[in-house]
Amino acid sequence: MKYLYLTLATLFTTACTAQNEIASALGGGYMFRPENLFTPVKDAVSDGYWDKPSGLSGEHVIVVDTRLQQAKYYIGGRQVGLSDISSGRAGHGTPQGSFSIIAKDIDHKSSSYGSIVDADGNTLVAEYSVGDPIPAGGRYKGAEMNFGMQITKNGIWMHEGIVTSAPESHGCIRLPRKMAKIFFENTPIGSKVIIK
């Protein structure tokens, strides 16, 4: 009986934590503060984790915390995933607010940032921004943004990239390859993305 009570208490606490995270991100206050009851699971692997029970349904919500450099994935109010991220660096901040996934592209290429390569594919300019001069014989090669999910009309995407758990991007939200693929495969267009 003691274990039944502990299990029920854990389930209640987990459900309240998920609802609080979403409510807080949407600007609402916390209804319940379980911080002193348990320590949240933080996977040691930088890829993060994914644990979606079979048959789970409900609204898909991704909460991106630019301060903690994490993305938490919820389905029906239950947290099913966590990933480290790299968001926008100084001068290229990731916008905050409530958004939704407006497009998906499994092998998206950036139309703003990339490199300049020669006819043989050798890199002439490693970090190039559209509008900068292009050396003679060079051509633009857009940065790979695989498993891309577009969040804003002005080019902010969630996609695979180098993740250092620090702000590094030009405003996009980078995920490790494993988690970018999982998020991409499980996220319908129209899913909510909350960035704080």
Characterization of this structure:
The protein folds into two domains: 1-40; 42-195, Beta Barrel (L,D-transpeptidase catalytic domain-like), CATH 2.40.440. It is 17% helix and 36% strand. The protein is α+β, with helices and mostly antiparallel strands and 196 residues long. It contains two helices and eleven strands, in the order αββββββββββαβ. A six-stranded mixed sheet has the order 1-4-3-2-11-5. Strands 7-6-8-9-10 form a five-stranded mixed sheet. The protein has helices spanning 2-25, 177-186; strands at residues 49-50, 60-65, 70-75, 78-84, 97-100, 103-117, 123-129, 139-150, 157-160, 173-175, 192-195.
Pattern of helices and strands: HEEEEEEEEEEHE
Major β-sheet, in short? 6 strands, mixed
Q: Which strands sit side by side, in order, in the main sheet?
A: 1-4-3-2-11-5
Described by the principal axes of the CA atoms, the overall outline is elongated
- CATH C-level category of the largest domain: Mainly Beta
The tally of helices reads 2
Distance between the termini: 41 Å
CATH topology title of the largest domain: L,D-transpeptidase catalytic domain-like
> What is the SS-derived class?
alpha+beta
CATH H-tier superfamily of the largest domain: L,D-transpeptidase catalytic domain-like
Number of domains: 2
Beta fraction? 35-45%
> What is the alpha-carbon Rg in Å?
19 Å
Helix content: 10-25%
User: What's the total number of strands?
Assistant: 11
**Overall pLDDT score:** 83
Uncertain stretches: 2-11, 28-45
Q: What's the architecture of the largest domain, going by CATH?
A: Beta Barrel
